[in-house]
Fold each of these.
Amino acid sequence: MKRNSTFSTFNIVNTLFMILIVLFTLYPFVYLVAQSFSSEAAIYAGKVTIFPVEFTTKTYEVILSKPDFFGYYWNTVVYSVIGTFIAVAATAVMSYPLSKDKLRLNKFFIPFVLFTMYFGGGLIPNYILIAKTLEMRDTIWAIVIPGAISAFNVILMKTFFAGLPYELEEAGRVDGLGVFGIFTRIILPLSKPILVTIMLFVMVGIWNNWFGPSLYLQSKEKWPVALYLKQIIDNAVSPTEIGATSDQTSQIAASIKSTAMVLTSLPIICIYPFVQKYFVQGMMIGAVKG
Amino acid sequence: MTAQAQVKAVDTTPLWRHVKKEWKLYSFLVIPVIYFIIFKYAPMIGNIIAFRKYRGGPNIFGSEWVGFTYFEMFMKDPTFWRAFFNDLTLSVSYLVVKFPVTLIFALLLNELRNIKWKKFVQTVSYLPHFISMVIVAGMVKEIVSLNGPINSVLASLGVDKISFISLPEWFPAIYVTSGVWQSLGWGTILYLAAMTGINTSLYEAAKIDGASRLRLAMHVTIPGILPTVMVLLILDIGSILGSNFEKILLLYNPLTYETADVISTYVYRMGITGGNFSYATAVGLFEGIIGLILVTTANAVSKRTTKSGLW
């Protein structure tokens, strides 16, 4: 069958198309890295397109020698770790009973969760609740609690739990495990793909969150790095504030933005290939059965 | 099949006895349900300030009723209507571009026979989904800036430099292109999942009948993923008001409000920045209800025509 040979016209065109997609996707990253290693003069002259021009690491030295950036970074790490733990634990605890067909009240609870996917309180009522009624302003709780459980994640995890073989739970019960024991010692260890998937979704969400912090965190020292980055991009933070000496300031106004962007996205880009296979697995299982 | 159906006999024990028997499992739900009531349902009730003169402060119940005053106000507000039509324009143009492109990309990915190459393309194409909106917006601004690569190419072609980010007529193009860049790979994930669920014997049968690759895609793959396509389309239609709030907030500026200001950014400026809480809530509530009506309608239409829907 000639049609199925590897070198058919279709395969060649398709491969070329895929190469184009890969280039289209990666180009902004390449440009950003090139700009961060280029001199300001070259950037302003519009010479930077793919490779760094007049290679320099000055902006990296300036940012990395200033402890502030690490302070914001550390805040992000703290918010991400605590927030992810709360979110994954709460999502798992909620999804497990919802995955059980024998629970008759699920006929009420599942629509109760689903409805929040299609209608929400809106920006202003949420803001009033968190900032004024619950007085969570300027605390870590305003960042990690309001988004902890999402209906989408619950549905994904519930579908995964429902697909686990019932016989395993039965075996656990025979061995004398209670409901809680079955959950922690049988269900959770079997659910690594979905737990990692949700963990990644939540962690990336908190890592990238700047809007919530901009609403609720007044003290600058509590800011996550994403919010600080926004200020740099908006030019609200001058190069001198980042710690550049006066002769450096004129050199780094544009490349400082790229450098800060590279440094902020670096952890995600580094972890991403390793967790990728889990979330693809997790999404697929959760979605096909759902 | 029938044997399984018989096993699922209707549980006829009284409800209280059922709850008593399964209380351990139900107890898992206590904290999450309280969470949902406080953080998901209370803000829905909080929308009543759209009908009250709320002046700030922790108590949303301590102010007088004003009925539909705020709704009448925004109906007469030209800025609201501008935001409304921008919201429609941006969402619909994004949907019209993104939907077929993602579907075609998924079909083509499915045709790749080299597994390693396929995995590589997928890994790369998912990546933008995980990048902070702050960085996406920052990248976009750098790339379209006066000394960015697009203007460099224009300059080498002898075209004058264009300040894309401050020209209203360019905003929809920037919005749609960057949206496709961000979501193209991620959008394929559910289609690919659905494709792996298609019975392989259907392909074999069609091949024996002499079907070409195009015909296999048209008559086996596409019908096989149709339910997934419909579900995603319904969800997209439901959010047709509600263009990406964060991205617009990061990308727009007063120069481009004319085409870039949408309902959610208008609500943000009115409510959070301007302190007109009740007015902004009324606008936001309107957006939410339209979204709910759209999802419900799209779902009903889909169920009637293709027999697949969200619920």
Note: Chain A touches chain B through 92 residues (CB under 8 Å).
Amino acid sequence: MSQSRIPDPSLDAALRRLDAAPRAPLDDVARVRATSVLERTLAVGQLPDARAAGRRDPLVPRPRRTGVRVALLAGAAAAVAVAIGAAQVLGGGATAYADSWEPVPAPASAADVAAAERACAGTARSVAGDGASRLQPRLAERRGDLVLLAMDDGAPEPATVMCVAALPPGGGADFLSGSGGGGVVRPPADGVTDAGIFERTTPGDELSVIDGLAGEHVEAVTVRTADGRAVEATVEGGHYAAWWPGRAMVESDQPLPSGAQGGCAGDCDGGQPVPSYTLDVTLDDGTVLRHVVPSAG
Amino acid sequence: MSPPQPPPADSAEQRFRALYADVHADVLRFVWRRSAAEAVSSAEDVVADAFLAAWRRFDDAPRRLDAQRAWVFGIARNCLLTTRRGSGRREALAVRVNDAADDSGALTTTPHDELVAGLDLAAAWRRLAPAEQEVLALTVFEDLTSAQAALVLGTTPTGYRLRLMRARRALRGHLSDGDAAEPAPAPRRVSPPATDALEATR
């Protein structure tokens, strides 16, 4: 029998029998010492004053931002430019971009890619710094007037940039939104990573963009949005990406959205944005992984 | 003169006392697994340092008790790394296991259990890189979720799940090598096969 067939629970149970520190009640001496440590801690340690509280203590871990949150924060900075660019390029209609939106993308032309690259150069520099020159276009799609471009530097844990430019027929390219990050491990051949999310939340003018990494056996990704849209993402060059008019995140007072893996770490007291969409991932052997839930971070 | 009053039930001190009562033993076991077998007193010192840091930064603590437990594990881990390396925090901590399982009271209920019990699992464990031991230990011994384990290691839940998948594969690989009792070679990086995509861990 191959060892790879040993299920995780059996392996874990066997390992637990090797535990060097199995659960056992403290003896009297240890209990006294533990009580002494607590009282000494409370007596010696002082809660930080307001000034000290702002400092980082290297001993104290803080939740690391996931790709989702990094991208969301970078996107939030870009949202200022979004509002300006959208008004200039799209004629000021609050939902003008949505009018040209299509659930199924079209390939972007070489000219589209070049124009989007130029429009997104500032985002690339702010995300990748000196490494911006190593970024190469990996995915490009057009939906109506908007061109979405995903780039990375080709590293095993790549720096990635996702950018959207408005490119109406006959018009010039204008930056619309951008985000990026790095250090995400590439997924296995038939997996995807959680997407970075850019979200514009202006009421009546919402827009969401997602971009993640896809394994080589991933053939298609369909985004199922909370408001019932089925958005066919573009899968190309090791990335998947899509945008749609509407929200990708929802404010939740729950630790995790339904079906998510894992528990809540960090500040879990409500009000945290969590992804509201799911993914259907189609592999090149025809397998469809339905309702894949992004992690809440 | 009135007698001293206990702090209000929802005060920071009361919440910290509750945390200490709930997790002190687990933190001691966490440190003990990552310390030399003979270093009982130094393990207790590390735990004391960890709780002192936790109390000083208690405003930063997660609100949920299960996440607080992971948070204190993360502090204890950083204390251990600081003790051993002075400043570096990138190194992983090796995790001890016993030489042989005491199976006298254990029940093997499935063919898989019997298979695993018959293998030299401790030897295979020692062939893992410390980073692989650490990833597995957080799930197996500390019983943390992926999100909680990610907090301890300073990574993301997705990143942790991938590392866990690789660590399990490395352990299985050492078990199936048939020479698990041999001295460990240099740590090797194991790529996950396609079938583990989107593997649910916890």
Note: Chain B has eight helices and no strands.
